[in-house]
Amino acid sequence: MRTSIATVSLSGSLTEKLAAASRAGFGGVEIFENDLLAGPLAPEEIRTRCADLGLRIELYQPMRDIEAVPAAEFARNLRRARHKFELMRRLGADTVLVCSSVSPSAVDDDALAAAQLSELADLAQDFGIRVAYEALAWGRHVSTYEHAWHIVEAAGHPALGTCLDSFHILSRGGDPKGIEDISGEKIFFLQLADAPQLAMDVLQWSRHYRCFPGQGGFDVAGLVRHVLRTGYDGPLSLEVFNDVFRQAEAGPTAVDAHRSLLLLQEAVGVADMPAPVVPTGIAFAELLTPDAEPVAAVLGALGFARTARHHGKPVDLWQQGEARILVNTAGAARRDGTQLAAIGLESPDPAAAARRAEALLAPVLPRRRGPHDAPLDAVAAPDGTELFFCATGHPELPDWRADFDALGTGRPETGVTSVDHLALTQPWHHFDEAALFHRSVLGLDARESVDVADPYGLLRSRAVGNTDGSVRIALSVGAAPTDDTVHAQHIALATGDVVAAAGRFRAAGGRLLRIPANYYDDLAARFELPEEELAAYRDLGILYDRDADGAFRHCYTETVGRVFFELVQRDPGHRGYGAPNASVRLAAQHAQRPAR
């Protein structure tokens, strides 16, 4: 199907928005009137620019407060419309969006609304233009798609149809099944947006919190299925008002937008995409650092052994159990410190996983590879983290470990068995994009977002993972993005006995995050724990959570650069990440961050 995006969905000047839409793969745009009015290009120049970029102008919008008004006001509205239709002819746009009126002078008279919209359609037809009438969720008298269609049907004009908007329908709790009662040829346009489920004024909800399909809580795919059953053959067009998107760079936002439509088309069965290849484990986490010594000290205290070194690059493999950490000193900037730069994901079919990622617009990363290096496919996540698709130990596929020369072992272990989860802090404008990326590209399931109190605001977190828990990634965006010590990335390591593991770490010279005594006083009130157990938690800074599925015990190391480690003892059925303890951890990290 054709795809389109409203220019209001992107940041920048009109020319920047058009270029971004074209580069992302859109075939059309809705020109938002304010974008045209604020730009220096004449309508004819915009028309030419769009043609050069391969963009069709699918819609010009909005035309407001037209119908069901007194005769004198309607005459002025027709005069205004004539000017707009002349502009649209110069622009090369053949469909205009007319929103249901919010004017105080509008009256509740469907017959009058139908008659005036019919007269408007007469005028539009003279210019070769169609009028798409849309019910705003906050319209003065017309606020549902059924009501708007009733008026369009009563008008009976060939140049008058309806525009369906998923936000206006679903935000009011409307039933989209009735869309199937509308003839597809009378649905002149379809606008799509998702949104988180919020209890707030619908106008403010619409103006600030819309997002791309798949990023919110609406069943946009279900609505589109109803529309397609009518025979609608127009574009799928995004109209998203979002404060974050309008401040973020237009190019990545447009790619995220187009990815959402590709995923939507796959969901409704009108596009063939490579099937998702869900990762089955964490092959490795790669740390990029300008100085390996502090990282090595922490890994050594955690019981990791430096078991191998890359045969052509300054990269060391540290391993304990099935947990593998690569320490890379190639090209790291000292000012950035240590950071989690790459993740190796175990895949049953790395090549198919890469094809899926590329089809969904994930940037394929060029890789400097020696003649004897294993061929690994890699793509970039929205935050820049490199994702490698691996087949560790597969008898018939390349094994990335063949790139490393063994160094031997010889360090006592602390009981770490594997990587429990990875926590990635997202740039403030990539959080929703990151969640959609990990769901659509990697095929991971997403849990609901969680807001955590931070001493300086709120931290928003959302976990994604596979069904058996062998891949868990916690995505977060912090309240204080300039504080790298607190809003760092971290690697959570699984152990069967966190008390023993933390004790060995400390005995080996490792430094654990100190937790205030007040936390343990409250813990004693919330849970009946043996005094000896509580004393051990207090001594080592171990945090505790429990639900109906089991307990979660965890503690943290101090931060190295922008990375810290977590030791986790998770009961088999527990699916959480210690969210009730996050505010305590954040406060402790704030209090103990080094002076600057």
What does this structure look like?
This protein is of the alpha/beta class and 596 residues long. It is 32% helix and 25% strand. It has 17 helices and 25 strands. Strands 17, 18, 19, 20, 21, 22, 23, 24 and 25 form a nine-stranded mixed β-sheet that branches. α5 (110-126) packs across α6 and α9 packs across α10.
Approximately what portion of the residues adopt beta-strand conformation?
15-25%
User: Main beta sheet: strand number and arrangement?
Assistant: 9 strands, mixed
Total beta strands: 25
The low-confidence parts are: 480-486
In terms of quaternary structure, the protein is single chain
Number of helices: 17
Structural class: alpha/beta
The portion of residues assigned to helices is: 25-40%
Shape: elongated
Distance between the termini: 54 Å
Q: How big is the Rg? A: 28 Å
How much is the average pLDDT? 93
Summary keywords:
596 residues; alpha/beta; nine-stranded mixed beta sheet; 17 helices
